[in-house]
């Protein structure tokens, strides 16, 4: 990180540094001071969340979104497939300040066409209908879990709206609020991250002053253990099964 800061001095180069996202916590003081110095650096953090599986909790970045959201000059990208990951790199290279790209380890299905356009602070509504009952917001691996949940619920006659935020900071509050209004004020967020400081809290901040909107958060709520990725997503309550259950519980309440 310090080398990247030096390389980016006086905008002499577009600097990228990459490692496991969990290891970037070791460089947090350098990142903080890079913001103070108005540095333009780009950091890519891989192996995020319990979805990395057998590597275990020491390697699982579960607080990285909170860490980077707290940096005033930071833009936080969270791509959900190969196309959006490539666009994240392109946009980060052309965005002033510190950029953090949160990269998921598992191989994910490509959602977007190669020519799909992305913008900082603009979300994608990836599943919608005229009869959506709940807005579900996921990113990275949990976006794919949300789409799987949408397929299961649709087979039961229940439609949900699914949003890919693309950037967690800045967050597309306008799209989230308008979608929530359409779906009766019901939002469910699902994230491969601890509850504190992540996607769910970002959404809560965005809708906190909007009347009639209720946010249910699904997140990793304790220190995890090793296991197979899909088993861990289910164990810690962020799999498609738990999204389906949460949608049903929303109506039960």
Characterise this structure.
The protein has helices at residues 2-7, 28-36, 64-69, 82-93, 141-155, 173-182, 199-207, 229-235, 240-252, and strands at 15-20, 41-46, 74-77, 98-102, 124-127, 132-138, 159-164, 167-169, 186-194, 214-220. With 253 residues, it is α/β, with parallel strands linked by helices. The chain has two domains: 1-102, Rossmann fold, CATH 3.40.50.970; 124-250, Rossmann fold (3-Layer(aba) Sandwich). Strand 1 (15-20), helix 2 and strand 2 (41-46) form a beta-alpha-beta unit. The mean pLDDT is 95.
CATH architecture of the largest domain, by name, is 3-Layer(aba) Sandwich
Give, in spatial order, the strands making up the sheet with the most strands: 1-2-4-3-8
Our measurement of the CA-to-CA distance between the termini, rounded to an integer number of angstroms, reads 47 Å
Count of discrete alpha- or pi-helical segments spanning 4 or more residues: 9
How many strand units? Answer: 10
Shape: globular
Query: What's the average pLDDT?
Result: 95
């Amino acid at each position: 990180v310090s080398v990247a800061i030096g390389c980016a001095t006086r905008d002499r180069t577009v600097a990228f540094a990459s490692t496991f996202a969990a290891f970037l916590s070791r460089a947090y003081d350098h990142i903080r001071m890079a913001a103070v110095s108005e540095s333009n650096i780009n950091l890519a953090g891989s192996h995020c969340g319990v979805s990395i599986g057998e590597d275990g909790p020491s390697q699982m970045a579960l607080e990285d979104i909170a860490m980077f959201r707290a940096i005033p000059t930071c833009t936080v990208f969270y791509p959900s497939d190969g196309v959006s990951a490539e666009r994240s790199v392109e946009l980060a290279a052309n965005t002033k300040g510190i950029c953090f790209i949160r990269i998921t380890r598992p191989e994910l299905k490509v959602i977007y066409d190669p020519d799909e356009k992305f913008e900082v602070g603009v979300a994608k509504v990836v599943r919608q209908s005229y009869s959506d009952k709940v807005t579900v917001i996921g990113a990275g691996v949990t976006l794919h879990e949300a789409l799987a949940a949408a397929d299961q619920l649709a087979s039961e006659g229940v439609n949900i709206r699914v949003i890919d935020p693309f950037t967690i900071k800045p967050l597309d509050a306008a799209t989230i609020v308008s979608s929530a209004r359409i779906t009766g004020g019901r939002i469910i967020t699902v994230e491969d991250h601890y509850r504190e400081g992540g996607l769910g809290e970002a959404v809560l901040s965005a809708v906190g002053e909007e009347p009639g909107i209720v946010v249910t958060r699904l997140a990793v709520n304790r220190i995890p253990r090793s296991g197979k990725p899909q088993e861990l997503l289910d164990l810690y309550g962020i799999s498609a099964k738990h999204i389906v259950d949460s949608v049903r519980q929303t109506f039960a309440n």
